[in-house]
Structures are given as C-alpha cells and as structure tokens.
Write a structure and sequence with these properties.
Largest sheet: 3 strands, antiparallel
Number of strands: 5
CATH superfamily of the largest domain: Winged helix-like DNA-binding domain superfamily/Winged helix DNA-binding domain
Shape: elongated
Order of helices and strands: EHHEHHEEEHH
Number of helices: 6
Radius of gyration: 23 Å
Helix content: 40-55%
Strand content: 15-25%
Distance between the termini: 37 Å
Length: 198
C-alpha cells in the first residue's frame, strides 16, 4: 500500500469524493471482506458490494486475498493507498495554473503553485515507477514564529538573497546532461488550531 496516491482521472476523483465511498475507502486500510465491511459500517452487503466495485474499477481498491469457504470464494479488498490527493489534472482546462495569476504575492497564487507541484511531481512519480528509477526530490518543512512584521520582512529579504545566491552559484544552463529543477519556497501563517471543548 502506498502512503499517498495522486488521483488524476476525473471519474476516479468523483468516485473517491463521494462521501459514502470515501468512508468505505477509509475502512479499507486492512484487507476486509464485503460482508465484514457491511457489518462494520451498518449498510446492506449489496450496497457495500456496489460501492466496492466502483472503488476497484477506478484503481482505488484492489483484491488483497481470496479465501475459499465451501463452494464460495470470499474476496478481501484493501485500499491502494493510505491517503489520496486529487491532482488539478482531474479538472482539465479549469485546473489552477500559476501562469494565470497576476498577483504573485497573493494566497491564491501560492495555492496555484502548490497545485502545480502536485501535478508535476505526480507525473514524475508515475514515470519513475514505469522506469524503475528513483526520483530525487528535496522537501523542507519547518515552522518559524516571527516576533514582528519587521522580523518577517527581514527574514524574507535574507531568504530571498540566500536562495538567489545559491541558484546563481549552481545554475549551469549549458551543462551537458544537466537537468533543470523547479524550486518553490512558500510561507504562510499556520491555521489556528480548533479550540478544545471540555
């Protein structure tokens, strides 16, 4: 089972976004039969079978094992991943694109950048699986608390200078066999945690 699978097919996205099917998909973390799943979620087995067939047909669930019980064969299904992300590719021509944004300092531009990362990296992952080669990536994720807007502005200036300096030092447009990489650095306020109720 994959940690994360990116859904690019619009029909598969529609299946995964259906609330009932999403609930069943979450229950498929471990192999389970339709009968046991129906009992767990309190739905008729026929209805569960219907939804499971849709999940399986769109590559979101697969048969993990088959067991013989007398003259019957019990299929135990499992999700293909523990979590899913819907790629902007599934939206076709209305998918977000940072090239359409005029305000490069806006939150919406940041969202479009993140969507492009999902779209591009998922395509690269698919290619690496097909060729059997590892995909080299770099991810940095950290939190920083600024004491003031002035400190945030100073940090932004220093980070920009550092990234620009590193990029100019290592960028070689004429290197034979070189490969271009995309570097995206983003920062946004952390969402407020919901207040705990006692």
């Amino acid at each position: 089972m994959l940690d994360v699978e990116v859904i690019e097919d619009p029909a598969a996205a529609a299946v995964a976004l259906d609330p009932r099917r999403a609930q069943l998909l979450a229950e498929l973390a471990e192999p389970i039969s339709a009968a046991a799943l129906a009992q767990r979620v309190g739905l008729p087995r026929q209805k569960v079978n219907y939804h499971l067939r849709a999940l399986e047909a769109h590559g979101l669930a697969r048969v993990a094992e088959k067991r013989k019980w007398g003259g019957l064969t019990e299929r135990r299904l499992v999700a293909t991943a523990s979590s899913y992300v819907v790629s902007p590719t599934a939206l076709g021509p209305v998918a977000s694109d940072p090239e359409r944004s005029k305000d490069r300092l806006s939150a919406r531009y940041l969202i479009a950048l993140a969507a492009r990362v999902v779209r591009e990296v998922s395509q690269l992952v698919r290619g690496s699986i097909e060729t059997g080669k590892e995909l080299a990536t770099l991810s940095i994720d950290t939190e920083i608390r600024f004491a003031s807007p002035a400190d945030r502005a100073a940090f932004t200036q220093e980070l920009t200078e550092a990234v620009t300096g590193l990029a100019s030092r290592y960028h070689d447009a004429s290197a034979p066999g070189g490969r271009s990489h995309r570097l995206v650095v983003v920062a946004h306020p952390l969402p407020k945690k919901p207040k705990e109720t006692s």
